[in-house]
Design brief:
With 162 residues, the chain is mainly α. Helices cover 77% and strands 0% of the residues. The longest helix has 76 residues.
């Protein structure tokens, strides 16, 4: 017996379409009395077997569609959570880069200040003591710079390589 799909909204999911069509068919068809298999002619017995097979197939399709819908919802949830996590990681990285830029600006300002002070100091060419002092100051500034920026640079590199 064919199922009439003319009364069904085509924008519904397949499961809902199938259920609506089957419900409409049940409402419009006259109730069938179960005919004992002895009354069915042997050459039409295959119809009963096909009916059972179709009902089994519909149940299997219903279960498969339900499982597919569950997997789709799960995939959407994972995708949404991944997007949120990526956005938060990007915000954190942006804040870290801003902080690192601020530290580098302060370092540049310190170098400029040292450079201006060095320009003001007249260093004798033959004396070792002023040259030694400049070397010590330069070494200390470089050491402080490396010590202050190394954790930020390591963190930045770790984030960029992930």
């Amino acid at each position: 017996m064919p199922i009439d799909l003319s009364q069904v909204d085509p924008l519904k999911p397949k499961k809902a379409l199938l259920e609506a069509a089957m419900a409409h068919q049940r409402r419009s068809a006259m109730p069938e009395a179960d005919v004992p298999s002895e009354e069915i002619p042997p050459d039409l017995q295959w119809l009963v077997e096909d009916k059972k097979a179709v009902h089994d197939l519909v149940r299997q399709m219903d279960a498969a569609i339900g499982e597919l819908a569950r997997q789709l919802r799960q995939a959407e949830t994972v995708s949404r959570n991944g997007g949120k996590q990526l956005e938060s990681q990007q915000k954190l990285l942006y804040k870290q880069i801003r902080t690192l830029n601020g530290l580098m600006k302060r370092q540049i300002e310190a170098f400029e200040l040292i450079n201006r002070k060095v320009e003001k100091i007249h260093i004798a060419e033959q004396t070792v003591l002023p040259q030694l002092a400049m070397g010590l100051v330069g070494g200390l500034v470089a050491g402080v710079t490396v010590a202050v920026t190394l954790p930020w640079v390591q963190l930045l590199m770790a984030r960029l390589t992930q």
